[in-house]
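A quick word before the example. In earlier lectures we treated sequence and structure as two separate objects. From today on, think of them as two lines of the same record. Here is Odorant receptor written that way.
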Amino acid sequence: MKCTFTFSIISVYETLKYFGLLTSIWPIFSKNRYLWVFMKAVYYFILVNYLCVFIPLILMTLFNINTSATVTITAVEQMIIVEAVYNLLYSRFYSDQFKSVVKEIEEFFKNSSPKERYILDRYATTRTFFNIYIAINYFVAIMSFNFGQLFLKDRPYPLNLWYPFTIKSQVIVVIIYIHQVIVITHTLILIVFDLIVQIFLWTLAARFELLQADFKKTASEMDLKCNIQKHQYLIRTTEAVIDFTKYMILKVFLAVTILVISSTLQILHRGPSTIIVQFFFIMKIASMRAFAYCWAGHSLAEKTGGLARSIYNSYWINQTQRMKTNVLIVMQRCQKPTVVKISGIISSLSFRFCVNYFYMIYSAFMTLRAVLEVADPLETLEYLRALSRIWTIWPVDSKASWKTKVYHECSIWIIITNLFITWLTLWISVCDSYKYPVIMANNLATLMIATDSCSHLIFYRIHRSDLSITAASAFFCGALILNKRFPINERYPFSIKSSLAFSIIYAHQIFSIIQNSTIIMIDFLVITLCWYAGARFNILGYKMKLVENKYKTKTIY
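And the structure line, produced from the sequence above:
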């Protein structure tokens, strides 16, 4: 059943305004002197709190510079504090631009028609669900930092700090603990400022979509002139918003780079489970923040670039020569979409930039990890062998007991049968969806995964000494979020009404999908074996360089 719950753009905007005032980043329009003094006091109180945490973090890094685990932990915490301080200072240094953008947005909301409000609410609904998911993850991360030290014996406080004085009094311990909890909770400023910037970009994208509808209805020179004036005004407004937000966007991507790399290194360090949970959520939130910005920028670029097509579809063919000329000029202007960009750094904030960005930071992470630590070859091989045995892909030893061999043989045929059932129902779904190219492409992609898994498992059954490669899959959570009954788009030749049948089919699909995930590990195993073979040839070459006489040559061979 499709979700019909919607968000009002006004309610979303007012909520952000409330949290913006709470975190002292929203511009103050009131002329009340007492309110202004109070907000100033709150602003400086928050700023001093951040500085009182940032200095001990620096000291902790300096005194543990040779410990990679401590350095990555403090790097993440420092980056969060620096980002929060940057947001506070940015909201003050660019307060005039902030106020002008807020005034323009509020004026548009106030004078918007029901049709415009409908488009704005649609944008608010589609984007707010994703940002609520980010906020939930951020809340879990805050709780894990505030109360995670209850499960860590060597860490009495939420943050990894070093104070230049001894802490023996219980009162001081409580004060420091409460102070750190307040600072961590107030880092909500990061999400609030992100949403403020994004709602500006969403609103502009919605206004360009409304302008597209107006251009399609153009029937006279007066309508065209009015729409051209709207277009020019929107371009000026968009440039003002981009000029205000571009350094904030640049800061976000720099911070996300440090947070993702440091958090991933900390996760792979194999520390306490509490630390792993904390930094997993930090990495997840940082990645989603970057994607949310790219989504907003892509929507804006898409709507501004689509104006030319809307103008072309208007009633201008049989109009006057002057109107035709004006239409062609406007169409030529619309060939250059208004995009969020920073010269030399971000060419265009879009999905393409998002993909390139994540490719870059994860490449940097792999390089940094190779510099910081060297993996033990035997440990890596044992890890891959253990995972292979779980899914009965690793060959059974000839000296193994008959029970082990029977279990291995039965497991293989159960898995093959299970994947074959999935493959058959997927093939029926592909045949039934030939009229819908998008659904058919989705079904074909899933069918290829199932086909690959079936063929390689059967190939392994025939050639036990060979190992195969299939693709990993993570569809089983998608049905919980998307408007889908099951993780895989399968067509069954019978109706499914019983809850028991529904549960059995759902569990069967989950098992099939998880089985496909084993093949990433097989890929790693094959690549590792190739690396080891190359390394052994390098060792042989090194020994050959040390040969001094024919007797040593015989020893090598």
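Notice the following. Residues 221-268 form the longest helix (48 residues). We will return to this example when we discuss secondary structure assignment.
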